[in-house]
Amino acid sequence: MANTEIVTPDPSNDKSSRFFLVSWTNNLLKTKFKNVRQMGSGACHCQIMDCVVPGSVDMTKVKFDAQSEDEYRHNFSLLHDAFSSNGITKTLPVEELIKGDFKSSFEVLKWFKCFYTENVKSTEYDPVKARNSHDITPIVKAPQSGECNLTFSFFD
């Protein structure tokens, strides 16, 4: 682990849109997310942490294809350990992230973008190599209340 002091950011002045954050994450991690809510497995958060502080997360233990709440919690536990060992006191709303809550997902990703910007020391990180060529599987959730799921049929 690095002995460099970690800067914990204040993202309150960051005006990044959800579209920018998804694009930023996809570019950084070489992923194909379409929505911030798809990142609720914690795998991308673990990888951003590993990118900022190389070796802080044992990437061989991250469940990149996680699709159950227990697997998501496992990933967030790895992230919590990395935070603790690096003196980061940020509390993440894990249950909200797991459930795909938009506001929580957006705010946490915004924090991670600021965290990356404030602390990254090298741009030589290879995210695909770091995760041993595994894809990070987006979480699949049924639409939450307030969302519309329409199916259209067209007849000749």
Automatic annotation (TrEMBL):
GO biological process: cell division
Cell inner membrane among keywords: no
PROSITE patterns: CH (PS50021)
Entry keyword annotation includes Ribonucleoprotein: no
Location(s), subcellular: Cytoplasm, Cytoskeleton
InterPro entries named among the record's database cross-references: CH_dom, CH_dom_sf, MAPRE
Organism superkingdom: Eukaryota
Residue ranges annotated for the Calponin-homology (CH) domain, each copy included: 15-117
One Gene Ontology MF term: microtubule binding
One Gene Ontology cellular component annotation held by this UniProt entry: microtubule
Entries under SUPFAM superfamilies matching the protein: Calponin-homology domain, CH-domain
Keywords, in A-Z order: Cell cycle, Cell division, Cytoplasm, Cytoskeleton, Microtubule, Mitosis
Family under the similarity heading: Belongs to the MAPRE family.
The protein's name: Calponin-homology (CH) domain-containing protein
Organism field: Amphiprion percula (Orange clownfish)
